[in-house]
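We emphasize that the prediction below concerns an isolated chain of 172 residues; any contacts that depend on oligomerization or on bound cofactors are therefore not represented. The input was used exactly as deposited, without trimming of termini.
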Amino acid sequence: MNTAITPEAIRTPQEKLAAILDSHQPKTLLTLSLNPVPLAEHWCADHQCQLTHIQEQNPFPALDRIDRVDMAIVADQLEYMSRQDGEALLGLLRNLHTDSMVVVYQPRLAPEKLRWPHNGFLALGCREEGHFAEDNRALDLYSYDLVTYNFQRSWNNPRFWANPEHWGKYWW
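Result of the prediction step, given as a token string:
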């Protein structure tokens, strides 16, 4: 029996996050959150995935001590950081620690001066995965995946170069 969740059936952020984890099947997972991420813990236990959890207000020193991971989840973290520190955190994760990450952001938890604009995540190369609202809570999911971030362009090949015989030979 296939228990995969279809995109039309996704109604909660937990289902969306589980679907993302199922599609990537990471062997190593990093969570950065001031609180535990139960879904990540359960998913790792069920899928023989090594889980590393950083639960600190300032996660930068702890990041220096870890190796590369298959995927990172940032939840309940950016709401309490300055925008500059949040951008530095996501950039560090994206550039040094993982090729895939998921950001769970709750804008109403962040003080007004620390709130990220919607396009703040998009500017870092993230993709919208969903916006969820229930009662007085709102939650946004964004993801970054290096494989799908920079898509292959039809014009980027030797046919469109002035000197196609030099394709792949010289780097400037």
